[in-house]
Design a protein that fits this description.
Bound molecules: guanine
Number of domains: 2
Number of strands: 11
Mean pLDDT: 97
Largest sheet: 6 strands, parallel
Structural class: alpha/beta
CATH superfamily of the largest domain: NAD(P)-binding Rossmann-like Domain
CATH class of the largest domain: Alpha Beta
Distance between the termini: 30 Å
Helix content: 40-55%
Length: 300
């Protein structure tokens, strides 16, 4: 079997276009421009790339982008003051503090200082609790984007066996919640899981989010399963020349694609969906802040 390739890039472009359409309507009908503030502390190269990309795509969607780049030694108190100012700013409907934060900053404290209604990452404990109890929440962007790809591919997920590899607050845990809500039987695997290959072999849906390059092998995959590779790992690529690198996922793409029914590539799979969902969440936050109906179908 050769797996179908799930084109997250095209899917994300479609989501962004629909967000942009709604933004145009909001401006024309109500004179409102959704605004997203992104806070970056320090100079982590991967974070800088993400933040640049977020800013560019925010503007392309017709929204206002507010970037706050702070030095790595910014005191926690200063960061909390900035978050407080953004909470109060009526032009800002969504706030994203890029993770990871430097070690001297308590990331939980900063995230929980964000007004839950502006928490477009869905990381605030209020949103985590709402999601976990099946209530209307801001849903974390990467799991939401992954779920959209799964629903598009499979239709109903009800009754399917799903394995989420990784238990992070950003991806693994919220992904498990979303799959559970869609009536999957969910297993969350992690670094202490025994016989991971056996666990994965039972799954109709595999979501790999461990951050270990090419860890999931084709022989672990149930024939016909749908594989969502959330990993983005930069590895040396000596075949491309000295010092060159390439991006790989958490799945060994070549061997997994031989067995799976469908698989997301890296790059071009889940990655583009994250920012598309961030824009959709910002639009939703803006609509709710203005007492307007949030467009449901964007992330349905
Ligand atoms: N770092 C890696 N992924 C994310 C994300 O989705 N949101 C934030 N805020 N930081 C991240």
């Amino acid at each position: 079997m050769t797996a179908d390739v799930i084109d997250g890039k095209a899917f994300a472009a479609d989501v962004r276009a629909r967000v942009a359409e709604q933004v145009t309507r909001l401006k024309a009908d109500h004179g409102i421009t959704p605004g997203l503030a992104v806070v970056l502390v320090g100079e982590d190269p991967a974070s800088q790339v993400y933040v640049r990309s977020k800013g560019k795509q925010t503007i392309e969607a017709g929204m206002a982008s507010f970037e706050h780049k702070l030095p790595a030694d910014t005191p926690e108190g200063e960061l909390l003051e900035l978050v407080e100012a953004l909470n109060k700013d009526p032009q800002v409907h969504g706030i994203l503090v890029q993770l990871p934060l430097p070690d001297h900053v308590d990331a939980d404290k900063v995230i929980n200082a964000i007004a839950p209604a502006k928490d477009v990452d869905g990381f605030h404990v209020s949103n985590v609790g709402l999601l976990g109890t099946g209530q209307k929440a801001m849903v974390p962007c990467t799991p939401l984007g992954s779920l959209m790809l799964l629903r598009d591919r499979l239709g109903s997920l009800s009754g399917l066996n799903a394995v989420v590899i990784g238990r992070s607050n950003i991806v693994g845990k919220p992904m498990a919640q979303l799959l559970l809500q869609d009536s999957c039987t969910v297993t969350v695997a992690h670094s202490r899981t025994r016989d991971l290959a056996d666990v994965v072999r039972r799954a109709d849906i595999v979501v790999a989010a461990v951050g270990r390059p090419e860890m999931v092998k084709g022989e672990w995959i149930k024939p016909g399963a749908t594989v969502i590779d959330v990993g983005i790992n930069r590895v040396p690529a000596p075949d491309k020349g000295e010092g060159k690198t390439r991006l790989v996922g958490d799945c060994d793409y070549a061997s997994c694609a031989e067995v799976a029914g469908a698989i997301t590539p890296v790059p071009g799979g889940v990655g583009p969906m994250t920012i598309a969902c961030l824009l959709a969440n910002t639009l939703t936050a803006c609509c709710r802040a203005n007492g307007l109906e949030a467009p449901q179908d964007l992330t349905a």
